[in-house]
């Protein structure tokens, strides 16, 4: 696994005592920062192995009587790294539009990616959801209010795992119950009456009342209730 120490052994004997050399991918090696030979070449030590250290390593022992060799094939596992992981990514989309959640990941072996919404696996077969580019992108087509929520991608391989969180907010236009209708309300003289305006939307809409096309300012005679969802006339 990456960033861990690793030692390769090459115990030899012979008369005269053999000279030991190491090669990587058929190229002779020399000591370098983080890599050292031990016991006259009978050991090769990586102080912190890296992804670039993957390859084929051969130790070759040679004397006047002949030679022998031993080969190691090293594959360094690297835990997944997701671009932008560590903080929640906030996304906003209008209802009916397309939005993409990106989970760009690297690692070795190539990580697998899984998605959840509000802690539950995404429902297979939903035509509005598409996983593309090896599931590193979640595409939502024709977004609707039910798409709003907390999404998480999980990338994992044999070396570890990492997650990235998304908070998706869907904007929907205001709707008013019984809109485009005119309601007649009767009241006793000097009595009070309450007018209703049941509106919804995301985010919750701001409500303004009008009389004869002029906005009504809250006062002792006309007061807004419940964030404007009702108007009380005294």
TrEMBL record:
Residues 1-75, 80-169, 174-234 form the Ig-like domain. InterPro entries: Cell_Adh-Cytoskel_Orgn (IPR050958), Ig-like_dom (IPR007110), Ig-like_dom_sf (IPR036179), Ig-like_fold (IPR013783), Ig_I-set (IPR013098), Ig_sub (IPR003599), Ig_sub2 (IPR003598). PROSITE patterns: IG_LIKE (PS50835). It comes from the Eukaryota. One of its GO terms (biological process) is synapse organization. GO terms for molecular function: axon guidance receptor activity. This is Ig-like domain-containing protein. It comes from Aquarana catesbeiana (American bullfrog).
């Amino acid at each position: 696994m990456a960033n861990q120490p690793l030692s390769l052994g090459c115990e030899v004997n012979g008369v005269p005592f053999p000279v030991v050399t190491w090669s990587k991918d058929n190229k002779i090696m020399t000591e370098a920062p983080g890599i050292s030979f031990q016991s006259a070449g009978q050991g090769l030590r990586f102080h912190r192995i890296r992804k670039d250290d993957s390859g084929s390593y051969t130790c070759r022992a040679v004397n006047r009587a002949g030679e022998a060799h031993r080969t190691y094939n090293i594959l360094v596992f690297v835990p997944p790294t997701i671009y932008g992981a560590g903080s929640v990514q906030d996304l906003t989309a209008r209802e009916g539009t397309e939005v993409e959640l990106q989970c760009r990941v690297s690692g070795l072996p190539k990580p697998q990616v899984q998605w959840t919404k509000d802690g539950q696996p995404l429902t297979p077969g939903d035509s509005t959801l598409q996983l593309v580019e090896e599931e590193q992108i979640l595409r939502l087509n024709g977004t609707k209010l039910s798409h709003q929520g907390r999404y998480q991608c999980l990338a994992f391989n044999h070396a570890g795992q990492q997650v990235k969180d998304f908070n998706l907010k869907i904007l929907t236009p205001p709707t008013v119950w019984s809109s485009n209708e005119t309601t007649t309300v009767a009241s006793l003289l000097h009595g009070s009456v309450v007018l209703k305006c049941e509106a919804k939307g995301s985010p919750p809409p701001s409500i303004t009342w009008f009389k004869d096309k002029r906005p009504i300012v809250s006062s002792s005679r006309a007061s807004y209730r419940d964030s404007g969802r009702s108007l009380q006339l005294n």
